Amino acid sequence: MPQINAEPYAFDFEPARAALLIIDMQRDFLEPGGFGEMLGNDVSQLRRTIEPNRRLLAAWREAGLFVIHTREGHRPDLADLPPEKKARGRSKTSIGDPGPMGRILVRGEPGHDIIPELYPLPGEPVIDKPGKGAFYATDLAEILRHRGVTQLVVTGVTTEVCVNTTVREANDRGFNCLVLEDCVGSYFPEFHIMGLKMIKAQGGIFGWVAPSERVIAAISH
Ligand code: C5J
Residue 91: its pLDDT value, please? Predict the structure, then answer.
């Protein structure tokens, strides 16, 4: 079994039982002119993750391994959008309203979709999630169980929100998570650093952290 040099200690990597889980690499979060930037965020903090994710995804696909993509968003009728989530932030423009790339975080709108650099191939599951965690109100757990997946290699945005929430949910469901530090990002560099520290603290309370090049080396022949 390949071992990945990781923090807080080596990760016993079983590629055949692993899924690459790419969280919310959506146009509205990452692209200049999208919802994230409209709120005043520096999208370059997220965009630095695109190239490492692209390299990892290419190697992962080349090795014939299982990949799942997620998107945060809501039904066009907004029936699954908690009014509290819409109201929070007190922004003039919020989820469901017309935004720079269509209705904000609404399924089927251009801004809700995954960036072209990491676009899913036919056959790669895409999980549409209404919450921050990828397990909440989705069929992710069933999809992983049917494939015999026990390990998640986690990438995407943002480190302290949807990545951390999903890793915590996965941890409670018995999955081992390896988070790739160069493939996750936050609009706030200090939250990114603390988000990673929280995962690997106390002997790996939620999982492991490593750079993506070590996973690429382990799966490339
Ligand atoms: C946020 C996410 N930050 N994907 N979503 O609202 O982390």
Answer: 86
Strands 18-23 and 66-72, sheet pairing? parallel
Count up the domains in the chain and report the number.
Answer: 1
Q: Which residues have C-beta within 8 Å of that of residue 4, sequence separation ≥ 6?
A: 10, 11, 13, 178, 208, 210, 214, 215, 218
The alpha carbon of 220 and the centre of ligand 1 are apart by a number of angstroms equal to 31
Model pTM? 0.98
Report the Cα 123 to chain-centroid distance in Å.
18
Instruction: Give the domain extent around 22.
Output: 3-219
| 187 Cα nearest atom in ligand 1 | 3
Is 129 one of the annotated active-site residues of the chain? yes
- Residue 176 · residue 1 · CB < 8 Å: no
Retrieve residue 118's tokens: 């990491």
Query: Which CATH number fits the domain that encloses residue 135?
Result: 3.40.50.850
Nearest to 57 by CA among 158, 65, 192, 214: 65
Tens of pLDDT, residues 66-81: 999 999 999 999 999 9
Mean pLDDT value across residues 56-74: 98
